[in-house]
Amino acid sequence: MYAIEVEKLRKEFKSYSSRSGLAGAFRDLFTRNYKIIRAVDDISFTVKQGEMVGYIGENGAGKSTTIKMLTGILTPTSGRVVVNGMNPHKERERFVQTIGVVFGQRSQLWWDIAVQESFRLLKKVYRVSDQDYNEHMDHVIETLDIGPLLDKPVRKLSLGQRMRCELAAALIHNPPLLFLDEPTIGLDVLVKLKIRQFLKEINEKYNTTILLTTHDMTDIEALCERVIMLDEGKIIYDGSLQRLKQNWGEGKQIHFQFRDIVPKEELMLLVDATWEQGEDRYSWIAHVRATDMAHVIGKVVSSYELKDIHIREVSTEEIIRNIYEEGIHHG
Amino acid sequence: MGKYIEMIRMRFLMMLAYRTNYYSGIFIYSINIGAYYFLWSAIYGGQPSIQGMTVEQMTTYVAIAWMARAFYFNNIDREIAMEIREGKVAIELIRPYNYLIMKTMQGLGEGIFRLLFFSLPGMIIVTFVFSLQFTTNVHTWGYFALSTMLSFIINSQLNLIAGMVTFFTLNGEGLLRAKRFVIDLFSGLILPISFYPEWAQHIMHYLPFQAISYIPSMIFTESFTGDAVIKGMMFQAVWCVVLIVPIYVLWKAAKRKLIIQGG
């Protein structure tokens, strides 16, 4: 059984534009110009129970709109959505019992009172038994290290502390499906690591399905084997992160730091590779295929005196950037 | 049901966190009651009764009306308007509860807080200063409690309606302010309904406002007795039911607008 099934999902918004000037404003009173914007354009995908999927795309690519349709906040213009075997907005109260949602930009905890009071309310709201709560939440609280924060009002917590509490709050009813909308936005590295480790753990322990949107590619690398990439409302890539890297980031970058200034033409003659100027006039970067690496290094080392050399793989960040700049079909 | 009771407790805690804001409130209410006390004493002059109410009944009416207001009054209309504007309602939709009932429960939590930390101490202060006439009839207290509960429900329902209407209008603030003024005036808080001219009384009989303040206060001062008590409470109960209809319709429409537009 699939946790999420989406077929030809589409969402259109009316976008109003105002005419210029006073006369224009007056005309706007009667008829307004609008365009229909397709935020999500006939996308189809399925997610299996227990999968961790990265849902990525630039701002405005349609990520949040999709998440809102999957959680039942928005109704699709057309298409079919089945999440946890239910239609999200038709059976709202029963459906929301089976999902957990964290919006990185929006708090779900009660601002003025202690965190534990929010937990207590949510426990009642989701009708979690004392036994289940203690068994499950003791572990969550310990792993996320939020025990000392529970009696503090939310407004006194730092962003990292608050985010960990938000995550715990979304898991009170131990949902089989978790939506995370930019959960690590603005967090420092240590908190990010802690949150990632925690997500991995609950995924292993409870086989929780996780759909994650983020702008931080290191999140995706750490957590998701599969990525779905969105551009202008369409899915442009759906598959393993590994394959994406192979197709797009096959090459290596070799950074050479020379003792003397070397002109580009000489290097071009020496080895057939793409050369790029480094930080200063002494350094050059060669973009080569992995198989050519030894050959290129050998040639350069035997011809010039070098101060330093290092090899770098193309980062996922760069791969994604390249894809958005050049389109998916280039590679 | 547990979740709704938990929400009452939650709001109570929230109010407690900001309790210092309320000490000044007690003072303001006491001044209000004092001003009306002297005003009515002056109006009565030497007359034993006006419109069937003695001066003691009148002053007690004013005091109890203000104290009951502390219980039924809440700001959920403003909160709803704000939560709609800021898109927080979207988050409420991913919770397995009814948003409007939750809002009402928050209002109740607020009401209970004000009753304990505001009305009761305020009432004690007021009885020391002015000569008020509190009944010792247990039945009257019982009817009054029930009637005040009904006025809480009606006032909250009107707040829900006002809050949701701001969803469809651009300027919510003016509307909410107008609503508050209309309720204070037509509910009988400032002037008992029996003091209004015939024709106005007639119109108000078709409006829900007197169910909020006039009826419970008349019951408390024993200006209503026997059948009048039952008739008054029936009037309240009917409005409680009738108001569910516009709430339901508005919520449907608001939800549709929300799920088309997004949060």
From TrEMBL, chain A:
<dbReference type="InterPro" id="IPR003439">
    <property type="entry name" value="ABC_transporter-like_ATP-bd"/>
</dbReference>
<dbReference type="GO" id="GO:0005524">
    <property type="term" value="F:ATP binding"/>
</dbReference>
<keyword id="KW-0067">ATP-binding</keyword>
<keyword id="KW-0813">Transport</keyword>
<dbReference type="InterPro" id="IPR050763">
    <property type="entry name" value="ABC_transporter_ATP-binding"/>
</dbReference>
<protein>
    <submittedName>
        <fullName>Putative ABC transporter ATP-binding protein YbhF</fullName>
    </submittedName>
</protein>
<feature type="domain" description="ABC transporter">
    <location>
        <begin position="24"/>
        <end position="257"/>
    </location>
</feature>
<keyword id="KW-0547">Nucleotide-binding</keyword>
<dbReference type="InterPro" id="IPR027417">
    <property type="entry name" value="P-loop_NTPase"/>
</dbReference>
<dbReference type="InterPro" id="IPR003593">
    <property type="entry name" value="AAA+_ATPase"/>
</dbReference>
<dbReference type="Pfam" id="PF00005">
    <property type="entry name" value="ABC_tran"/>
</dbReference>
<dbReference type="GO" id="GO:0016887">
    <property type="term" value="F:ATP hydrolysis activity"/>
</dbReference>
UniProtKB/TrEMBL annotation, chain B:
<keyword id="KW-1133">Transmembrane helix</keyword>
<feature type="transmembrane region" description="Helical">
    <location>
        <begin position="59"/>
        <end position="76"/>
    </location>
</feature>
<keyword id="KW-0472">Membrane</keyword>
<protein>
    <submittedName>
        <fullName>ABC-type uncharacterized transport system, permease component</fullName>
    </submittedName>
</protein>
<dbReference type="Pfam" id="PF06182">
    <property type="entry name" value="ABC2_membrane_6"/>
</dbReference>
<feature type="transmembrane region" description="Helical">
    <location>
        <begin position="112"/>
        <end position="135"/>
    </location>
</feature>
<dbReference type="InterPro" id="IPR010390">
    <property type="entry name" value="ABC-2_transporter-like"/>
</dbReference>
<feature type="transmembrane region" description="Helical">
    <location>
        <begin position="181"/>
        <end position="199"/>
    </location>
</feature>
<feature type="transmembrane region" description="Helical">
    <location>
        <begin position="21"/>
        <end position="39"/>
    </location>
</feature>
<keyword id="KW-0812">Transmembrane</keyword>
<feature type="transmembrane region" description="Helical">
    <location>
        <begin position="141"/>
        <end position="169"/>
    </location>
</feature>
<feature type="transmembrane region" description="Helical">
    <location>
        <begin position="233"/>
        <end position="251"/>
    </location>
</feature>
